[in-house]
Amino acid sequence: xxxxxxxxxxxxxxxxxxxxxxxxxxxKSKYILKxxxxxxxxxxxxxxxxxxKALQKKLDxxxxxxxxxSEIELKIEPIQNIYGKFxxxxxxxxxxxFHIFFNENKKETKRNYIxxxxxVHQIKIIIDYKINSFYNLFKDCDCILSIDFIRFKRNNIKxxxxxxxxxxxxxxxxxxxxxxxxNDMSGMFKGCSExxxxxxxxxNTANVTYMASMxxxxxxxxxxxxxxxxxxxxxxxxxxxxxxxxxxxxxxxSFNTDKLTDFIGMFYNCPFIxxxxxxxxxxxxxxxxxxxYSSYEGEFEIKEVEQID
Length: 309
Fold this sequence. Notes:
The protein is an alpha/beta fold. The protein is 15% helix and 16% strand. A 6-stranded mixed sheet has the order 4-3-6-1-7-8, with no helix packed on it. A two-stranded antiparallel ribbon has the order 2-5. A hairpin with a 2-residue loop joins β3 (98-102) and β4 (105-107). The two termini are 40 Å apart.
């Protein structure tokens, strides 16, 4: 009986049901219904949800999350009088899903440079939900003053690896940032040497497994809010905060290191952090516990680390 139910669930999750309200109403599991609409929310079946109040209540969802134009929208303020790159779309097949506007005038996606003679004061980018990776998106972008994510609800983004690598931006507004499906944040802010503060308290990191070099070389970073970080699935924090020379305080009390296997150089060359509470490090999978001590430079007061055999 159990195997039959599992088979039915998998079938319902992967197939688009007939376009009839009765078919949907007969599905008793809210979980399965949500899975179905997560996959087909842009289809005509949305009309069924909109017209059927009983089904809306059963789904317990906000219809705003299932709009046809459920896209990612961000605003970029460029550094004036500069010729430089502001976005880096590696995958040519995905270019058609990026809609770029210079001063509200839409341009071709391939135009990812600012020119002084264009007098660009604002760039708006609309990204379709079909995009599943932000790998290298702002890598080496050298003319950005600020990036503000205006709308960022439903999405399929799995990787934010090196998303802002060596980006020149001075300010990142990530309060609307959605990381629900992300599994890789390696090098995400690496080399963002102009950033002085970063608030990531709204990040959902429950599915993230890689945070290696995430803030490495953020040399001007003075304030970093990771108060709600869930690291229960993270296996690598290799050089995560390495060379954060200006950071004075860091609260990692929410960290869970049960699956952590690599933390070499995690706090290398962070000279102004005078006290660091490492009670959260219950290391059980590392080959060499000494790495957590050898990865520091500066005069730290390090609390005892609990080792699990």
